[in-house]
Amino acid sequence: MANLATVGDLDLPKHKVSAGVPAILPKSPRIEAPEHPVSHTHTTMEQALDKGVKAGIAKLTAGLSPIALAAAYADWTLHLASAPGKQLQLFEKAGKKAWRLASYAGFCATHPDTSKTCIDPLPQDRRFRSQNWQKWPYNLFYQSFLLNQQWWHNATTGVEGVTQQHENVVTFAGRQLLDVFSPSNYVLTNPDVVEQTIREGGTNLLRGWQNYIDDASRLYAKQKPVGAEAFEVGRNMATSPGKVVFRNRLIELIQYAPTTDKVRPEPILIVPAWIMKYYILDLSEHNSLVRFLTGQGFTVFMISWKNPDQGDRDLGMDDYLSLGVMDALDAATAITDSETVHAIGYCLGGTLLSIAASAMAREGDKRMGTITLLAAQTDFTEPGELQLFINDSQLAFLEDMMWDQGYLDTTQMAGAFQLLRSNDLIWSRIVHDYLMGERTPMIDLMAWNADATRMPYRMHSEYLRRLFLNNDLAEGRYHVGDRPVTISDIRAPVFMVGTERDHVAPWRSVYKFNLLCDTDVTFVLTSGGHNAGIVSEPGHPHRHYRIATLAKDAPYFDPDRWMAQVDPVDGSWWPALSDWLGKHSGAAATPPPLAPKDKGYPPLCDAPGTYVYQE
């Protein structure tokens, strides 16, 4: 394995603090984002009228702003109209592509069984991989489509003067519209569907129609997808034994029962994202990160977030800090009598954990002995295609929709994420379920994904504006209390995980933490996507990862150079995390009591608690 600074783990001294730890936040602070107040109070009649109109439109457009889209297209069309050279180039390209297609058609007429192509799909495009697409006339169908797709990419990119944001939006929207007309989406132009229809005498289409009616009925009734009923929280998911030891209006804190005779003195506190139910990290018995860590001799605590409703509209980022991370940290340290914890944050939970760690470092609170960030961003200048939905116009539109209902609904979030991978999540499913008449067997990860949560109005607006749009955390403008915090104050060693195919938190964006911090960072790049790459238990087939540690005083390595020089390792990255945590832990000792009454944390109920069942 390649070595950048130190490959593997660091043997760094653990931080020690005195018994008195300064508090960084009051129990329920109200920290406003001064440039963009979002509270629904003191709204004038005129403002309410404006917000109500936009909220009504947003319900028809799934939360997407038609004004933002129109602005992007106006920018592109006006600049393209004033660029005769670009127009001439596009005209030439159209002529060349038409000639290529005509030549290819002539070649196919004399070589009907050819596998030759005039254009190849992109590596991630799996629509035309079947050998049936090489048969006439289907090869002409998909080759014509790909040439057309390539021409539109040329047309929407490289137009001088168009802002990068608008170019990205126009390119993305054009790709979405073209994908509607892909020959793979229709019965008569998809050779695999034609073959199956002939073979089954059309019964596949009948099954597909039944599948469609079933799905539409479930969607209308707000029921879970087919097969999800086989996966039940507390029965075969989220089954690690434990107790809820703390509850407030925002979280339940679960302490898991030890599974080893001795445990490390420092507990693990896991902060999951509140955009999802926590139990992705305690999925099934065979792929539960909680079970893995308790099996390695750690005491594990997990935050389970409340699923907010309209009454929680004014919960903000400051509440998620104080009622979430800080209250859980107080409980975990009190129960275990430990001066430090191993803090783990996933996705948005990792971003929140970074903010909390920065604020604690500012105040001299050293209770975070180590920090592990799983697919979590701290610099949002390159957040991937999610950036397409983040600008002032779009956020104003989204805020008005949330203002009307008090939260961002689960279906509104799901639509945006599906658009980012429309070929995989929308069109391929339509072909598979409705044209081929088949069903993909439900698995635990898919069932969890269908158990979505809402986002409070104020918190989500603050998160999108202060982090995504303004990048306040990375640039030193994010306030906790009355002062800004900065990642560079963190001194605890950090273990970071990015995933190769992450469309939510691209790994190169996650890697930017190295530009902000002043501590030792062990970075792991694992195979898989945003969820499957994290749920990567030992024994999972076809998994690999790269790992290397960059010391705080070592020269910076850009992500591409890092990837080129660090060799992949077969298997799961979970044991690497366990080894790293072990080297930053004390000697194993008797486990702490489970839900000790004498310390003020009596058992409230069994795991998985009550908040996880809220719909």
UniProtKB/TrEMBL annotation:
<dbReference type="InterPro" id="IPR010941">
    <property type="entry name" value="PhaC_N"/>
</dbReference>
<dbReference type="GO" id="GO:0016746">
    <property type="term" value="F:acyltransferase activity"/>
</dbReference>
<feature type="domain" description="Poly-beta-hydroxybutyrate polymerase N-terminal">
    <location>
        <begin position="124"/>
        <end position="293"/>
    </location>
</feature>
<dbReference type="InterPro" id="IPR022211">
    <property type="entry name" value="PHBC_N"/>
</dbReference>
<dbReference type="Pfam" id="PF12551">
    <property type="entry name" value="PHBC_N"/>
</dbReference>
<dbReference type="Pfam" id="PF07167">
    <property type="entry name" value="PhaC_N"/>
</dbReference>
<dbReference type="InterPro" id="IPR029058">
    <property type="entry name" value="AB_hydrolase_fold"/>
</dbReference>
<dbReference type="InterPro" id="IPR051321">
    <property type="entry name" value="PHA/PHB_synthase"/>
</dbReference>
<protein>
    <submittedName>
        <fullName>Polyhydroxyalkanoate synthase</fullName>
    </submittedName>
</protein>
<dbReference type="GO" id="GO:0042619">
    <property type="term" value="P:poly-hydroxybutyrate biosynthetic process"/>
</dbReference>
<keyword id="KW-0808">Transferase</keyword>
<keyword id="KW-0012">Acyltransferase</keyword>
<feature type="domain" description="Poly-beta-hydroxybutyrate polymerase N-terminal">
    <location>
        <begin position="47"/>
        <end position="86"/>
    </location>
</feature>
